[in-house]
Amino acid sequence: MPVTPQGRQLSLFGVEATASAPSDLEGLLAGPGQVTRMGGTARVSVVVSERWRVMALLEEFRSRGLAAGCEPATAEGHFGVRTAYASALAPLGVRWLRGALKAVPKGFTLDGQRLRLWAAAAGTVENARAYGLRLGSGDGEAAWKIVGKALAAAGLPAVLLGQGAGGPAYRIAGRRRISRLVELVGEAPGGAPADSWPQ
């Protein structure tokens, strides 16, 4: 199996193993991201809490040929990152919207590219053996469960944390599962604090 320059084996589903594409932004929609449609186009947006996340997401968007920008969010100290409306994102609008509401599509799957975007936007290191992925607070338990099944199918069974436990979020716990997550999402984005990315 091929290895990275750092000596890690490449996963068949890891970020290095697949070409990036606009559809990877489904990873943001699994978490707190939102999608809106306009004519034959769509736009994806997400609110993040740290500037390194802004820079990481803008780079990820641009690497997929998507124009993007950032502005202060209504929550103090947060930033709204969003793509421009693009025809390349129209399929996401079709798949993820029921009317004006976000809905996780049947058969949704997660791979390294999608997980990397989710982690960049809403991932947190809880401790050396636990990593959290924040969910959309308004998405509802039915949607969260579909996302949980996608995590499990990717080799990352996780515990759903409710609002009272610091959620909604999924907690991936255990050294083996964290190692699997690292294998999938790849190296930390430039500028990310050392304690902010799974390792």
CATH level-1 class: Alpha Beta
**For the record, what is the CATH homologous superfamily label?**
Homing endonucleases
Strand order of the largest sheet: 1-2-4-3
Mean of residue pLDDT values = 91
Overall helicity: 25-40%
Annotation field: number of helices:
6
Mind telling me which CATH architecture this is? Roll
One letter per element, helices H and strands E, the order comes to: HEEHEEHEEHEEHEEH
User: Radius of gyration, rounded?
Assistant: 16 Å
- CATH fold label: Endonuclease I-creI
By helix and strand content, what is the structural category? alpha+beta
Shape: globular
Cα distance spanning the termini: 21 Å
Low-confidence runs: 1-8
Largest sheet: 4 strands, antiparallel
Strand content: 15-25%
Counting structural domains, the number is: 1
Record field, number of beta strands: 10
